[in-house]
Specification:
It holds the Pfam family HD. InterPro entries: HD_domain. This is HD domain-containing protein. The chain has five helices and two strands. The protein is mostly helical and 97 residues long. It has one domain. The model has no long low-confidence stretch (mean pLDDT 92).
Length: 97
């Protein structure tokens, strides 16, 4: 449970549903790029979880920036080219825009 009214699914299920929806409904040569961004888009949430007493639920402000660092690290370690990594990071950052 993500502890807020905007996400009713646990984080892993939400990420899987985004990935699956994209995979089932998108046809394009950049599918793998978008799948990669989908897989990483909320990975920063566990590091940014803060309970807001006045609101009565958790928030994850800035998680997209932490997600970018996680994605960058993993994709570099896996040997992806910088051009691909940069595109994934840009999509991941704009997850909240």
């Amino acid at each position: 449970n993500q502890g807020n009214p905007y996400h009713f699914l646990p984080l892993c299920q939400h990420t899987y549903m985004v990935y699956a929806h994209l995979t089932e409904n998108y046809v394009g040569e950049d599918l793998f790029l978008l799948q990669s961004a989908a897989a990483f888009h909320d990975t920063g949430k566990p590091f940014c979880r803060v309970f807001k007493k006045l609101k009565g639920y958790h928030s994850y402000y800035g998680h997209e920036y932490v997600s970018i660092h996680i994605a960058c690290h993993f994709l570099m370690e896996l040997g992806f080219e910088w051009e691909f990594i940069e595109k994934v990071l840009m999509i991941t950052e704009f997850n909240m825009k």
